[in-house]
Structures
1.
Amino acid sequence: MIRFSDKHPAVTALYFISVTGIAMFVPHPVILLLSLAGALSYYLIRGEASARFLCFTAGLALLMTLINPLLSHRGETVLFFINLRPFTLEALLYGANAALLAAGVIVRMNSFSKIMTTEKVLCLIGRFSPRLSAVISAAVRSVPLFSSYYRHVSSFRALCRGYDSEPTPYDRAKESMEAFSATVGIALEGSIDAADSMDARGWQNGHRTASSRFVFGQNDAAAMIYIALSASVCIAAAASGLLDFDFYPVIADYGRGLFPLTSLVSYAFLSFYPAVSECVWHIMWKKRKTEKYPDAEALREYNRREAEK
Amino acid sequence: MIPSGYGRLRAFLRFAIPLAFIPAMTLAGALFLDKKRYLLVSLGIAVSALLLFDAAYESRRSSSGSAAAAAVMTALAVTGRLIPVIKPSAAIIILTGIWLGPETGFLTGALTALLSNMIFGQGPWTPFQMLAWGLTGLIAGYLSRPLKKSRIALTAFGLAAGAAYSLLMDVYTVLSSYGEFTPALYYASVLNALPFTLSYMISDALFLFVLSEPLGKKLERLKKRLIE
Amino acid sequence: MTDTNEKHIISGTPAVIVKDLSFTPEGGSRRILDSVSFSLGEGELVLLAGPTGSGKSTLLRALKPEPPMKGRLEGRITVCGRNISDFSSAEQAAAIGYVAQDPETQIVTDRVESELAFGPENIGMPPSLIGLRVAEAASWFGLDQLTGTETSVLSGGKKQLLNLASAAALKPRLLLLDEPTAELDPVAADSFISAVKRLVREFGITVIIAEHRLSALTGDADRLLILNEGRLVSDSSPRDGIPVLLSIPGTLPEAPAAAVLAHRLGYPDKSFTGISDGREFVRGLKKTAQPESERKPDTSKDKEAAKGSETALKFENVSFRYGKNSRDVLSGLSFAVGEGEMLSLLGGNGAGKSTVLYTAAGLLSPYTGNVSVYGKKVRKNDGRKKPGSGRIAIVPQNVRLLFSGLTVAEELAKAGVSPENLPYGPDFDFAGIAGCCSYDLSGGEAHMLGLALALASEPDVLLLDEPTCGLDGAATEALGRALMSLKAKGVAIITVTHSVAFAAEYSDRVALLFCGRIAGEGTPRTFFSDAAFFTTDIRRITEGSADNAVTISDALRFFEPYKEDTE
């Protein structure tokens, strides 16, 4: 069993595109709730949760919920009046729906950014566009180098110069700009050597392949099928209009019967997939810890017998 | 440099897929969604535009000089986000377009968005950001002659680019969250983003005004060394 | 010891044939290479030497079709039996490898394995085969533990080894190395050279390596080619070539110490490449001499150092670390440098030498202890003008970090430096290079400019981080002289260096940094005489024969009476 975050990048990409895509284009409240719940569960289970991030997201959600009824006055159930304009329940719920969507996407994308490392992105891009992936790789490689140049340059400049009084923001800005300009100069000089290094190793040869350490295995194929299936059920239901949901003028749910219910369950399977995978992973390792490893004597005996064969 | 057989098929697909993408997305949007169809269509357009550019890039001979320059300018634009007070990213993209050509400008812009998001956080907004900044570089490249001549024009372009980028991204924000596009929501979104918009515009303009000359010289020098 | 001179005649088809090679750069009139001809066999390790500007880099670049050179190339070059212009992009990448001097800028990908895969990917190797090639190269070069690491966090030595491995991953028949160890510390340089020797021995790859520091290679090289002013002045075994090299002005500090000693003592035809040869020679000298000519070393310099002078920079119990839970980089470090004194700081790679400099400059603040300049505590610079005395200047290892990309004249003007005020003496001035862009300067010229810019603030304390890195013999001497005149003006200097010879020649005191503190210090004479490993070649040669001779001048003074009479 391979952990979700260790799967082939194609699986990760397909997953996030499906789960986010459905959430964005099928704004059914249950779907959005499932999306947020699934995103949050994975976010929390990974153990890298940040209170600041969650507060920020919650705050944004609240803002979105409240802004909508202040600007949009459609809907039948009026709660109260502001400035002679109606503050309707439908508008409030619509705002809440949009907030659910936004929050779900933000949390999901946070986890995505952590799992989808540069290496994985380059693996995917490299399969289709080897030249582009080389350019991106060169850029990634240069970022820490250039920020180190910048830090050194501004330190040395600070050492040499001095102001007569407290530096103003304009002085600081000008100083940053000049230090950055020097950084650009050094960086560009290095680019000439880089270009030579690329040519020396055959860049001008027209045909380029790309390799990566990620191998697409059976496990990954199974995961892709799982994702594709659960997403398709949902998409089919949405395309048939069974997951339409109206807020104005009154709240109305158009899904009746087994099929829409199945599609919601299917989306749940999709949304919670990473969290469940992570759970299973932890349980598996807890079990392994309690297993005993063979002692040294047994191991030596085994090796001896193997050597005799 | 088109390799034969399998390679030709891949090259054809590279162009065919994005070109087929736009009508497909538009159709899907029209048929299956009544809300959010604009989002789907615009997503389709953004992704197709990027894929088309990529197809063109892979099929032409690419010199190591322009590849290295694009990589370096992209890295500089991304590093620029880390320095205090002033954010030179958009300015770098504009200067790249002007001095190193529209294609390199587009590439630098798009990759800056991609790379920044890889480091600071991805989102479904990535294709839009890539397109927005790519276009900044591209347009700057096409306007290179007048922009090189006058510093005022360059600064004005910087202001306009900063504003346009912000306004464009606000369109996306509204479309993605609320599904429908009403002027009220758009104004609210623009107002909400106003401090950011203003800071982008001022950063851009200030950076271009002060540093276009020294950086221009450096880029000119690079061009001489890299052009075969 | 067989004469290796005939090796290339005995073996089969020459791997490289160069005939009447000349090169004139674009827009220039002078030929950088002038009718160079030679031929090399397979599996030869060839050393390419000559003063700066003699055309070594140009020759190496001419042997590599891509990147193409801008200018007119005349003559014929044949590699592995084919004319070099017949090679396609992929073929030239595979057959001819190239490693340049700067380890940093050659790396173009973000991870170790993608860097190794870069070449194979370019030539269109199928991905499965690339995987195998990367695995092999990483294992063979000892980089397998580093797979997955980002290239930006590697040490300089590892970076350069990675560059070598990436070039070798394409299975070249010819490897061109342009001063690859110039910016590496001795340990890293040594492992790089070992890897090169293994490539030659185990695969029969022909390697041409241009170097200034010849001592490490002269023993193992099969051939020595010497260029001077674009012409090939010598093509022979290293032993025979060294005397020719020594006859060219400015190359003295580069040649093996034993050879230089022999040359200066008047034995021009005695050519030595290694330490043991030198020791044999020196012992031989002593035997033929009369016993009463035992000379005492000149200790006047020691007396001067003992004289009391005001303390310029003082570290008292300084400790520093980067994070709360990380290891101490500096740990209770204490030392002092007096007015007009030069201290050389030695130490292994990563010992924290640069950290000492940055802490002295106030760019890093210690969590405990005190750093003071003329009694005043050094504070982290907050942009305000520092009152009173106590100015500190630093020249970093990468000198370009001080430049703004303008012409030399503009850089000096911007910093407010007038060339007349510089203590450079008559042998160096900026007039010749005033119009050059600062990024175009050679290593030596760049360091002189960097020093000039650092001196703009008229510092009392000057900090130099590896100033000799990448410098050739003549430039090192010029730098040494400039530092001497600065010392005379009362500037206190701290030099971090891994060049033991430089420290021995120019500093008043030497200290070894280890585990965050000074493990030992003393005058060059006492330090290098007592040291077992961190000592000069001269000392290694003369130990047992001469007392406390650590520099060439010491040795010459000692062996004065044994000088061969040359008329």
2.
Amino acid sequence: MISSTGWILITGILAASSCALVGTFLVLRKMSLMGDAISHAVLPGIVIAFLLTAGRNTFPMLIGAGIFGLLTVYLTELLSQKGRIFHDASMGIVFTTLFAIGVIIISLFAGNVDVDQECVLYGEIAYVPWDLWIWQGTNMGPRPVWILGFVLLLNITFITLAYKELKTYSFSPQLAATLGMPVGLIHYGLMGSVSLTTIASFESVGAILVVAMLIVPPATAYLLTDRLHRLLLLAVLFGITSAVGGYYLALWINSSIAGAIAVVTGLQFALVFLFAPRYGLLAKRYIINRSKEAPRPVTTG
Amino acid sequence: MDIFFEFFSLQDPNIRYVLAGTILLGFSAGALGCFAILRRRALVGDAVAHAILPGVCLAFIVAGGKDPLMLIAGAFVFGLLSMVTMDFITRNSRIAPDASIGMVLSVFFGFGVVLLTFIQSTGYVDQSGLDDFLFGQAAAMIGYDVNVFGGLSLLILAITIITFKELKLISFDPSFARSIGYPVKRIEFLLAMLMVLTITAGIQAVGVVLMASMLIIPAAAARYWTDSLRVMVVVAAGVGALSGITGSFISYTAPAMPTGPWMVVSAALVFILSFLLAPGRGEIARFVQKRRLRHRIASENILKTIYSMEEEDDRTDRVRPRRELARRRHMSKRELNRAISTLLRKKYIAWFSGNPGGYVLKSEGRKEAKRLVRVHRLWEQYLNQHLQIAEDHVHDDAESMEHLITTDIEHELLESLGSPERDPHHSKIPYEDADEGEKDGDNNAHNNQEGIDQTGEPGKQNPGGRKSQTTKPKGSRP
Amino acid sequence: MTTQNATTELQTGPGRDPSSAGRQNPPVEVHDLTVAYDQKPVLWDIDFELPEGKMTAIVGPNGAGKSTLIKAAMGLIPSSSGYTLIYGKPLDKQRRNVAYVPQRESVDWNFPISVMDVVLMGRYPHLRLFQRPSREDRRIAMGALEEVGMAEYQNRQISQLSGGQQQRVFLARALAQDAGIYLMDEPFAGVDAATEKVIFNKLQELRSRGKTLVVIHHDLQSVPNNFDWVMLINLRLVAFGPVAETFTDENLQKAYGGRLNILSQMVERSRQQRFVREQESE
């Protein structure tokens, strides 16, 4: 049977893969911070669902958080258009207010609720092996693994089915619209995936560090390739290595696993940032210096 | 009510501290936030706030305990470091600014969490305060904190006033600023330092996540109230301070409530109210303006319709029944009624009862109608001639444009077109007559009822009837 | 009249650096300018000396580097190599003397400032850091606004202006700066015919006063009638010289490389949401 370490690693890998997949499109569409916004703004959704169901039953929490995730996106767009505010400012207004409301609700019912603030914020993946799903008396394995596995499957299906649309949309929403693609649907579909992925990953890595897994591996991959399918694969790869590397790092220095994973994503990015063959920093400096002696390029004019 | 007085009597020193601290925080963050959102760096503050955590932890480790000065120094260093990193990534790679912010935010914070758990695992006794870092602990503010806030706010106030012209310039047009040799980088750095200072101090009151909101929300709310940057900064500072007061008060009345989130919610409420109620730029004001414009357009269209009916049968003495107007112009009955009553009120048209009853243009009304038609046809001619848009495409544009063309624009059109006689459809363009006003249907109508043909059948031509005019407008500007 | 006084003042304002009067340095010299992003060259080895007191048009296909040229020459964006001299002196010492008019899209026109605020910024090169504009500066700014016919808009917030009016405000800012050299990036893009006339008239007036003007221009048709010199840019300097000799079919072919057909021009324009014009074929 799989050891607890195994379960932890599997959970991390599943979460990282899902995040990398949807995060790639966020990065391409320059909506990286939407992931940050959603992961904060779902707090009230989780809390409300928790209070209504009075237990740690995950499914209603998933739904509650999903609703608030989409609500965040909707309110942000609404505010940005009607309020004539820049998109990033409107995002900031919406998610911080929702988060504040979430905290207030928690404080209101502090006595009755066992929502560990820290847990929500940075999760506790180490507990996963003991969070078992008992179905009709059988031990089905850790619940988070099932949920994350399900979400990963969903994401893969979504991306595979809508690959053409997502690709066009990432390149240019206007182009997609002129080609007759349902841009609104794609957009909300993507945001729905982000919400789902974020919530599913909460328990493992918590709200703020989900953002690391959403953005950093895809950004790292972006420095290495221009092709979408390679981008997705590399992003997932970097996500997995971060999850595994982070776990062992945390073990070594005896710290939070989630935090360690985030740090590893950052270190990977730093390495690639410096050494990437075409888009890396050193490559650019070196090439520029060399190209001054090189013969003039042929004009494409 | 008692609580209200209890609170605002400021007898409890703790209340004084908390109030002072949150007011000053709201004040500084609100003012600085204006520059952040105008420069589209709204969420940089969020990233900086998160990035401070590792600085605080490292300072804690290095200092071996909770030395406040060290913690602030550590926070400040990492705050600056995070800003530099974000900028560096964007400048030196093809990573977009938003991804750069998100990366710094999460990775730095992750690092901070690692350090935090490391500290916890080593069993330092004195580390409880670090947990409050996330949500702030305004209620625990002491005199020292207030002094820090106070000093910081004064510093921000002074620097903002002195460098206002520079801040305005680099926020509006940094490339122009650079072109005239302004030290844009240095000024941006100054702004960054002030932001980091504010965030560092403010986190202790409202916590990491909510710090960003104090930078964004008051400034966004202030924008609705004014078109002047100076006023915007003042209003934002005021809104921030107000949120501080409200937040502290609510937190006081319900001891379990943290101050930070209530500050944010108060600011958000002010924002919503501003969004709705601000005169001019608020939603309600804009709605009213739009409606007014719609009504004006509707009445102008009715006026034009009556005029074109006059042009068609070359009669100024015929009454135009309401149902004719309704037939020609598709608008709701309510709009039509409203338009007509406006025109009646302005004495542009008059009602004549009869069988059927109808409306007639008065002299002022005819002048105005002529102007509208003239402007419409001039615009069509302009589109056709200067921009070479085909005749069948110009009408719709002119239909909407004519209501917006002012006298100035009209004169410019006349000048550039050379006062043309006809529009692209070869309809005559009506200019004002010098002798208009005396020979009108309405004058005669008052004196001589038979002058107005009320049956709609061809009757005798009114001696003062309008003929097509092609005289050039008198006194047109060269 | 105030306008005339202001104009006279501007005429005697700082222009040439007196110490170089004998040496006849060209107003703007650019040497070895190369700009590259992510290994892709955008400008390669540009060298030129602008003629004084003349109006030069910079033309070339979209993406050929025209904007980049001005920005890099002004040091607004990093270049891989090259330097700029103004009247023989390094750029940084002579910035006051160069008025840069950026593209209209480069600023946020919803920014909460007034027309007067923007024009006053043209006076900043004459002020020290942290020094506020004086009443004299305001007078000069007002004069500049009158010159472009925008005087009554001085307190208007800039979002309430039309495209042509915004462009005129930018021009007024440059006038208020009272420089000897004007670098303008597509000042005629998307403006109405009346504004176009106002701006051209103003530029010609500046030229007659001995100012040096450089305009990135998109409309090839109006180049021969309005400009003295022309520079064709497409990654490299394709040609540069007086219009009569330089604005030839051969050079245009080299610069535009077959992109001169009507269809691609129309596609270009409709993409930028301008009215469709009919072009005469070459």
